[in-house]
Structures are given as structure tokens and as C-alpha cells.
Write a structure and sequence with these properties.
Blueprint lengths: L26 E12 L2 H9 L7 H14 L1 H4 L8 E11 L4 E12 L4 H19 L7 E11 L6 E2 L2
Antiparallel strand pairs: 1-3, 1-4, 2-3, 4-5
Helix pairs in contact: 2-4
């Protein structure tokens, strides 16, 4: 395998390893991820109206996403633990789905990026939305979770949306 396409989390013998970022310069890095939860009209209306028995769906999902971003290195085996300078999780109602669109933005100053932290925030926020509406709609669908922006570091900026 050529160096350009080498999987960085495997050593020469194919064993998992954490990438050594010690020689990299610290720089400002940030990433944005998105996802969505599609649900029945009944669940959508209840969630939007704040009529969910478990409480405030939007605040619970935002808090869950923020907490998850901070725990990413504990959840994803080869992720570096990072000091996160900023985490923002937004939950917007989307009548066209119907459902919720989720966006997470994470910032750090460090030697490695925060793509996994942004993706983890969106994923756990989406799971929280599902958990809170499952009493109304067990068929809700979590989808389209993806990185949409990454900034900083050796590989530079990436904008996918």
C-alpha cells in the first residue's frame, strides 16, 4: 500500500495503534457534522410542541451531544483525548422530514482534529431524540450522519457541503 493511502491506525504488521501526533504543531482546528432523525407526524408535532413525557427534547439532545463530544476518546478506541474549547449542538425542527436536523460544531487548539468529536456529538444527540420519542414512534429513523466541514491541521480545510 502506498504511503498516500496507508491506514494510519495500523502498524506495519497490521495491528491497531494510536497515531503518534507528538511531532505535529498545535493549531486551531474545528469540525462540523450533521445528521437527522425522521419521525412520524404525530411524534414530530408532540416533540415540537414540547409534549414529550420525558421532558424537553431539544435541551436534552443538545446536552447529550455536548457531553458525548467530551467523551469521544472513551468511546472510540484510537481517538486521542482532547481539550475542547467550544462545542455547539443545534437541533432544528424540519417539517419536510418530518423530524429534527442536528448540527454539531467542535473547536480545539491541538495536534489532531475534532472530526470524531463532532460526529459523536451528532450521533448521541440523534440517539437522544430517538429515545425521547420512541414512546410515540419506534419507527423513527436516524440517518445522514456525516462530516460536512473540517478546518486546520496538515491536511488543511475540507468543505463537503
Amino acid at each position: 500500500m502506498d504511503k498516500k493511502h496507508k491506514i494510519t491506525h495500523l502498524d506495519a504488521s497490521g495491528q491497531a495503534r494510536m497515531v503518534d501526533v507528538g511531532s505535529k504543531d498545535a493549531s486551531d482546528r474545528w469540525a462540523v457534522a450533521r445528521g437527522r432523525v425522521s419521525m412520524s407526524s404525530k411524534a414530530y408535532e408532540a416533540a415540537r410542541a414540547g409534549d414529550i413525557k420525558k421532558g424537553d427534547l431539544r435541551n436534552a439532545a443538545q446536552l447529550a451531544g455536548i457531553m458525548a463530544a467530551k467523551k469521544t476518546a472513551e468511546l472510540i478506541p484510537l481517538c486521542h483525548p482532547l481539550i475542547l474549547n467550544h462545542i455547539q449542538v443545534d437541533i432544528e425542527w424540519d417539517e419536510q422530514l418530518p423530524g429534527a436536523s442536528i448540527r454539531a460544531e467542535v473547536h480545539t487548539r491541538g495536534r489532531t482534529g475534532v472530526e470524531m468529536e463532532a460526529l459523536t456529538a451528532v450521533t448521541v444527540a440523534a440517539l437522544t431524540v430517538y429515545d425521547m420519542i420512541k414512546g410515540i414512534d419506534k419507527g423513527a429513523v436516524i440517518d445522514s450522519i456525516r462530516l460536512v466541514e473540517k478546518h486546520g491541521g496538515r491536511s488543511g480545510d475540507l468543505i463537503l457541503e
